[in-house]
Design brief:
Shape: globular
Helix content: 25-40%
Distance between the termini: 31 Å
Number of domains: 1
CATH class: Alpha Beta
CATH topology: Maf protein
Structural class: alpha/beta
CATH superfamily: CinA-like
Number of strands: 6
Strand content: 15-25%
Largest sheet: 6 strands, mixed
CATH architecture: Alpha-Beta Complex
Number of helices: 6
């Protein structure tokens, strides 16, 4: 995550996160790096649907697509960026190889990641399948994956799918 923090500092950009299944692991990995306070504005762990909604995720999006969807991740990334006035917002939602009795639909081993670029009003959308034996290993896998994707976005990499945001 050192490269992410250093790149954000060099660009004069900020980031905020809204995490669900990773439980703050992304924010934690960012704050492990010296200088993180210059770039990380805020992080929210919204494990429940209730708090995703309180943080701006449209309940209709959750009902239509499920809480485990790229549409929900997009709402998370954009709303955390707007809430904190950060240049980038990261939204993470998914299941780490478990059944959620409160949200029965959705793949049990896919994590959806959205990086919202406020300046360009774009979503960078990703998903990663998790298959490790423990939650910790799966979180580490997801965070390693996100680190590379944030660097791609910051360096305007070409390997991404984006959607123009609906304002």
């Amino acid at each position: 995550m050192k490269d992410v923090v250093e790149t954000l500092i060099r660009l004069g950009k900020t980031i905020s996160t809204m995490e669900s299944c990773t439980g703050g692991a992304l924010a934690s990995s960012i704050t492990d790096i010296e200088g993180a306070s210059e770039v990380l504005k805020f992080s929210a762990v919204t494990y429940s649907n209730e708090f995703k909604i309180k943080m701006g995720v449209d309940e209709n999006i959750i009902n239509q697509y499920s809480v485990y969807s790229i549409e929900t991740a997009n709402q998370m990334s954009k709303n955390i960026s707007l809430f904190t006035n950060s240049d980038y917002g990261v939204g993470i939602t998914g299941k780490l190889n478990r059944i959620d009795v409160n949200n029965l639909f959705g793949n049990d081993n896919t994590v959806f990641i959205s990086i919202y670029d406020k300046e360009n009003d774009k979503y960078y959308e990703y998903s990663v399948d998790v298959s490790k034996a423990t939650r910790r290993e799966n979180k580490d896998l997801v965070i390693d994956y996100i680190e590379g994707k944030i660097l791609e976005v910051l360096n305007y990499g070409k390997e991404f799918i984006y959607r123009k945001s609906n304002k």
